[in-house]
Amino acid sequence: ATENDSRMMKYRCSGCITIRKPLNSRNFSKLLHSCLYQCDHHKVIVEAEDRYKSELRKSLICNKKILLTPHRRQRLNSES
Amino acid sequence: MFQGQRGWFCRSVGRDLTQFWVDEGGMVSDAQAADFLFSCDASHPDTQRIYQSLDYLEDNATVFHAYYLSAVANAEIKNSVALGHFVLPPACLQKEIRRKIGSFIWEQDENFLIEKVREKI
Ligand SMILES: [Zn+2]
User: ipTM of the assembly?
Assistant: First the structure.
């Protein structure tokens, strides 16, 4: 697996080198987004996923606008 | 190694890898309660449901390839394996990502990694 090892050495952003801090599915994406320098590998993945998310968000808003609006309003009222 | 951690496993993940997780102290949970989301196939309906969830939209749910677990089983120092190399993006993005960065880490040595896990169990 030496080829694998050398590949891993090329990557050097916090998405790559953070091993001591407890990373998991819940905090990884936020860590990457807050990382000032992203390696090529993570940069490409983050950009692609962000684009996917914004498209999905748009389609969700179109489909569920009518459903979501009263719920949102209710929550805002109870918060104030 | 995974003491007190909850993991969700897509049905695309082989039993060997799930068993390794449990042997290392991990618990298996549903997707909502899980700290870790593991899949071997981004196009599996179980995993696609994650990619369509609000958690995912809000950057609260990264899916990792379950070969992370075989890399851990394989490594001399277990916590030296970087989880970050095993991000599994939605299937519809993989072609484009591959074009830019070459193959994913979890696409290499697949058979090698799996065999190693079998040896350990
Ligand atoms: Zn990186």
Answer: 0.87
